[in-house]
Amino acid sequence: MQTISWQRQKWVMSGLVVAVAAACFLTMIVAINKPQAKVQKGLPVMTLAASQLFYPDIFNASRQPLHALTGQSLAGGITSHHLPVAARLINEFYAALGEQHPSTVVVLVTNHFHFDDAKVRTAAVQFVTPLGQINTTAAVIRQLAAESLVVEDGAMLTGEHGIWTQIPFIQRYLGNQTLVLPLIVGPESSEETLQQLEQTIRKLLPADTVWVLSSDLCHYLSQQACHQQDEQTIPDLASQQNNLLQPHADDAYRAGDLFFLHLQAMQAQNGIELDRGNSADFGSDPVSTTGYVSMVFPR
Q1: How would you label 122-142 residue by residue, b for 16+ Cβ within 10 Å and e otherwise?
Q2: Closest by alpha carbon to 226, among 285, 161, 271, 166?
Q3: Which one, of 99, 103, 93, lies nearest residue 73 by Cα?
Q4: What confidence score (pLDDT) does residue 43 get?
Q5: For residues 179 and 101, which has the higher predicted lDDT (pLDDT)?
Q6: What are the C-alpha distances in Å from 73 to residues 20, 233, 261?
Q7: In three state form, how does the secondary structure of the chain look?
Q8: How far apart are CA 205 and CA 223, in angstroms?
Q9: What are the Cα distances from residue 135, in Å, to 39, 196, 247?
Q10: CB neighbours (10 Å) of residue 203?
């Protein structure tokens, strides 16, 4: 009787081993066949919180109809990065871009925090917002870095509001499949560097790429003084002259030069003003104000 009992125990143990092995095998098969999320492996994630973006309130701003742009292909444009105050203008701008659905957007901004910087900085990251995930042009960024035309600097990108304020609007109007090339242009970048960078980017990116200059206009002046200065600045910008270097208009510097180099290379037409405004128009302090414009440049 003891022998029979021992044999039964061996049979039970053998059955358990077989069952466990079968379960492991099935688990492996399921894992192999399970759909995997399409993410760029090794790409750092930059998360933008709803509170940081003033989401979803930024999309409640009214937009004017843009019938005049229907059917026009755009080479680029200028819009604000002042949230939530200038949300109306930014909505109008990306609504215009959304009519042509570019596959790639180059976002240019001056280096707000290092005025002696002579480098163009960027980073290959995946932006994550309440609207989902959107990727940078990682392969292009790495090639530009390999050619010493840019410096990869994730920390700088994280702190640069001129870049990340554009991301939710790109997602909303162009879609999460759009690729973004963010460029933080140092105020001391050389003309030679900017020319080489523009030429190389133009060769590497698709023909439907749109360039966006993320810039505000007059800073720190009264509402009246700011209006007067912007009355001079906006026509110059429309005629592709970088008039963002004058006192109290310190938001574009060499980023504006790079932007207009590209427009000239693309033989873009003069700019079409979509809207303009001032921070005091939206309830901000009228003593120290900021000016805004949204403008597009047809090919």
Answers
A1: bbbbbbebebebbbbbbebbe
A2: 285
A3: 99
A4: 81
A5: 179
A6: 62, 25, 18
A7: CHHHHHHHHHHHHHHHHHHHHHHHHHHHHHHHHCCCCCCCCCCCEEECCHHHHCCCHHHHCCCCCCHHHCCCCEEEEEECCCCCCCHHHHHHHHHHHCCCCCCEEEEEEECCCCCCCCCEEECCCEEEECCEEEEECHHHHHHHHHCCCCEECHHHHHHCHHHHCCHHHHHHHHCCCCEEEEEEECCCCCHHHHHHHHHHHHHHCCCCCEEEEECCCCEEECHHHHHHHHHHHHHHHHCCCCCCCCCCCCCCCHHHHHHHHHHHHCCCCCCEEEEEEEHHHHCCCCCCEEEEEEEEEEC
A8: 40
A9: 9, 24, 36
A10: 7
- Is the pLDDT confidence value at 13 over 70? no
Query: How much is the pLDDT for 253?
Result: 77
Residue of 258, 218, 83 whose CA lies nearest to 162: 83
Written as six digits, the tokens of 33 are 């066949």
pLDDT tens profile 262-284: 999 999 999 999 999 999 988 88
Q: Which two tokens stand for residue 293?
A: 């414009």
pLDDT, greater one: 61 or 230: 230
Closest CA to 278 of 125, 89, 123, 107: 89
* 260: alpha, beta or left? (left if phi > 0; alpha if psi -120 to 50): alpha
| Phi, psi of 106, rounded to the nearest 5 degrees | -95, 125
Q: What is the pLDDT of residues 119-168, one digit of tens each?
A: 999 999 999 999 999 999 999 999 999 999 999 999 989 889 999 999 99
**The pLDDT of residue 222 is above 70:** yes
